[in-house]
Amino acid sequence: MQELKSTQDKEAVLNPKLLSKFVIKLLKQDISKRYKETREITGEDWEFCEAIDWHPVDELPMKEEYEKELKERQKGPHSEMTIKELDKLMKIK
Questions:
Q1: pTM score
Q2: Rounded to an integer, what distance in angstroms lies between the CA atom of residue 16 and that of residue 10?
Q3: Residues 47, 53, 54, 57: is their CA dihedral positive or negative?
Q4: How many angstroms separate the CA atoms of 16 and 91, rounded?
Q5: Element (H or E) spanning 5, and its range?
Q6: pLDDT digits (tens, 9 = 90+) for 41-88
């Protein structure tokens, strides 16, 4: 808690920037917990998530099925491309 305080003329003053980081972190934890339990987000929570460009799904691990699907797609026509292949595709060279 010492980090939250800065001294100014012998008065303890809360550091608003650091305090806001802690509040955001606590709100995110609370929203994540409730989202994991209910898979729902309230309107107020949604406004907060939009304001900080975050969603509780961001904190969940990727589903195995989706990870497998992505790996399969990488092997097909959406695989990595060399510079020469990109140039050919874009008709640059």
A1: 0.58
A2: 18
A3: positive
A4: 54
A5: strand 5-8
A6: 999 999 999 999 999 998 888 889 988 888 888 887 777 888 898 888
Tokens of 28: 């995110």
Scored b (16 or more CB within 10 A) or e, 43-77 reads eebeebbeeeebebeeeeeeeeeeeeeeeeeeeee
User: What's at 23, amino acid-wise?
Assistant: V
Provide, for the chain, the percentages of residues in helix, strand and coil under a 3-state DSSP scheme, each rounded to the nearest 5.
60, 10, 30
Contacts of 59 (CB under 8 A, 6+ apart): 28, 32
